[in-house]
Queue: 4 jobs
Job 1
Amino acid sequence: MNADIPVVTIDGPSGAGKGVISQRLSSILRFHLLDSGALYRVTGVVARRQKIPFDAEQPLAELAKRLDIEFIPTGDPEEPMSVLLSGEDITRDIRTDAAGVDASKVARLPLVRLGLRQLQRSFRRAPGLVADGRDMGTVVFTTARVKIFLTASPEERAKRRYKQLKDKDIDVSLLALLDSIRERDERDMNREVAPLKPAADAVIVDSTGIGIDAVLDKVLSEVKKRGIKGG
């Protein structure tokens, strides 16, 4: 039964390190991988391409239902997976700060979230799933075996994002990134539908000032406590 397939959810704000941790964890466990945030980013990018207003809830929901998305692990810690939309690699398009802002706008629309929920749950396949997002443990996979809430200070997350974008020759202001992160946190935590918050049974891991290997060790420890051995 699908309900018997183990799920590890890793929720938290943008820039906390969810992507790298999820990719490495899924590789270790040999589980499938879901980057739910990418689904909202893709929805926002396609909406902008098709000139669909960000307050047009029904058209955006219909768009979300039709998305044909595939995640391809890369092994690159700076960009742990490629995102394909109907075969087109749109990884670079969805990783901009503007795409993140657009994602936050569409994510607050109930019909869009509902439209993507079935797609998200379809990633739950044997031998298991690592699901990265903001409401994976609170809404989408409420019975997940392990729930992690990965966070870091806004300043730390802005510095990480700044380095990522600079390494890709994308010109950006650190101060503008910090402002954007704070605004997005405020919007995500206070939206009426599926606000960003830890699940009641989640383990909170603060990655501020901690190396990625140490964070992964903490997450793996929680996974092992719950008897998950991987595929």
Job 2
Amino acid sequence: MQEARVAIIGAGHIGSALVRGFLETGRCKREHLMATIPSEEKAQQLREELGIQVESDNRKACGWARVIVFCVKPQVMASVLQEVADTVSEDKLVTSVVAGIPTQFIEGCLGKQVGVVRLMPNIAVLSRQGATGMCRGRFVRDEDVEYVRNLFSSVGMVMEVSEDLMDAVTGLSGTGPMYIFQVIEGLSDAGVKVGLSREKAYALAVQTVLGAALMARDLGEHPGQLKDLVTSPAGTAISALHLMERSGFRAILMDAVEEAARRSAELGKLHTLGSSD
């Protein structure tokens, strides 16, 4: 499988970031990668940037590849699957990063017992610091799952969950960078309000978020314990924390994740209902 041909169907932001990660970490050779994108102008740009085959023909790419990665929009997933179904034999490995689309739906559209792995990366794969949830379909082999895990670890961490938790993954980590971008923007605005230049406020906000995240990852302690390291008696941090608690900051985050997970499930039903046996 290490020398398998890989086709990225839909080389947008996520798809092209995956290609870069696969290449930069040596997971794939250039001659073993192909991507598709409808625009010839963008196709030519990607050919020049990445040095791989880029086509507009999804059927050609799926027929050529041993491993297929679907990166299209949820609303077109059914039509793309139906378009390429006869080119996808049971000896191929199908993966999908399409939000809300279950493995059983993909299997049904393809009409055969093909191995399917569903993934939900987030936009941080652009910096190879993504968080990707992964689940397996009914017919996929253990060795193929491990291949996918290794492939996608080139753009960040990969965590396997049961499929019923994929909407939760979407709500938490899939949508999660947006929450953090809001935090960074809010901290930057606050820095400007208390007298810092925009440039300095932004740089301090970004580094603060990065440093806190690395501490949480590397120390492995409960965030409550880490919070206690900062909140000294009668200090600035405990005063700020009081205001955040009174304003329901944590409850807002919980509500946001719950709403995003609900919407993920809703989108899955919307784009699969009536499209497959």
Job 3
Amino acid sequence: MHLSYIIFTSILVLVALWLAYFYLKPSKSKHTNNIYTDALNAMLLADKHKAISLLSAVVKNNSNHIDAYLQLGNLLRDEEPDRATKIHQMLTVRPNLRKETRIEILKSLALDYEKTGELSKAKNESEKVLKIDKSNLWATSFLLSIAEKTEDWDYAEKIAKELQKSKSFRGRINLSKYTLEKGIKHLNNNEIVEADSLFRKAISDSPEFGLPYKYLGNIMHSKRDLIKAVEYWEKYMELEPSNSSSVFDSIETALFDLGRYSEVEKFYRKVLDKNPDDVNAGQRLANVLNEKGENKAAIALIEQFVEKDNPSISVLLMKLKLSLLTKTPSELSHYVDEILEKIKKHDA
């Protein structure tokens, strides 16, 4: 009876010790989750090296930790895109993935392929996202960026229209820019009729879109219809004043070819009336005045730009050029010093 009691008591003690060990021992899962939390904190603090190290430890301890693999691949994308791709490819074959997780994996894989320049594969992966979630805003926006990078303008236009229909999309898209790009493609292939038609369609759809006017001006110039070319280029300048200098040479040359020399000065004065800060127009007008022998007027015009805050090196050089015949060597030397000081600051 005494022996049986001892045996029974011993068994109870062993069971109690086993239960205590089972319930009180540190959980491997809990330890792994703590490391993963530390990795996320490191990511928030932009400590990429530490985050990669911690995530590597997580997946080593738990090969089923999908989120850790996913984040590890994302962090490796910039420096080791091929390794990131392999990690994310491996995740795509995992069974029983939640819809949201599968989408995140496909998004990561699309970004991996974009990083390695495999844009057709990037497109395929983002299209897979849309098969799972047809209203996914990220996938639609990403596909549009890929279409633009690959210059697939028909596809870009199609995706842009779908993006505009999305209730969650808050941006604005000018569809005419894709019409314009298709026109430019035809123009580069010397398919003038098709290009002309597309540029006019872009204007019809978006009258305030400036670039089609510029290209129509180029077409008119190629046909030697210089008057119409100038009209289109001036309309482009009106709509895109910040880029107006890109057609200055074309307009000036066309006016000279038409024998309308006096209109060159009028043209640049009109530009400056609308935008007094247009340095390019100011310098060109100064050149015109100088060629007419109106050197004092040219210098006075350039002085207006020199007196403004932080004048450009080109303005200072123009002042030096116009002053060569009217200033003393010491004055010219002072101008040169100004330019050298400006260059030093620019290089610094």
Job 4
Amino acid sequence: MTPIHDRGLAFDLATLTRRRALTLLGGVGLASLTACSTGGTAPTTAPTTAADECRDVIPQETAGPYPGDGSNGPNVLTQSGIVRGDIRTSFGTGSRTAEGVPLRIELTVLDNGSGCAPYAGAAVYLWHCDIDGKYSLYSEGLTNENYLRGVQEADASGRLAFTSVFPAAYPGRWPHVHFEVYPSLAEATKAGTKITTSQLALPEQVCKTVYGTPGYVQSVRTMARTSIEDDTVFRDGHDEQLATVTGDVDAGYTAALTLAV
């Protein structure tokens, strides 16, 4: 059965809770390495200063139809085990491990309201599709799985990281990663009030390289018909959301993004 995916622009606009115009009020930058508060390792390269990195607030985006935060069906945020750095394997009653090219996702969160100082203690809930373009908790055969979902708390430098796999490209969307930012770990793990919801975009050339490896056949076909300029989420601008990606297929990749909220 063909999996259900993001429902396009009409659905996205209907689920927005904060106008994208807020991007004019703050700042964000790219390419900052991060440390994972649970299960991660410290970055080997020091980040640039907040003043250098902070330009625009990360755009508010839809969480899509598969957030798993209780707003549209299941709520994984209140489950024991959701706070973890390695999100490749399901926890609790789930047992499946996601396959694919290794991807480390490193985020640095800045506080726009404090002059773009590091947002220490902020929490990020992150999720994305698997190698087949399916989402745990929602897609057929995966309703009892919760892999590729996790929460991490930012350290004193506003940094956090997740160990994952490279997501697929599925029809209608550019390759992306969803995330929600909360003011604290306590607020995140009770599915409380979030600061923002947004998405991270992955660079075209890296995607094409990854999709040339076994298991990503569907993604090759999708990329041939997809551009980031036509994507329902990113087509109105993606400068603050396009990650800097380093690495290779054999060693795995690291996607880094600095975001102001």
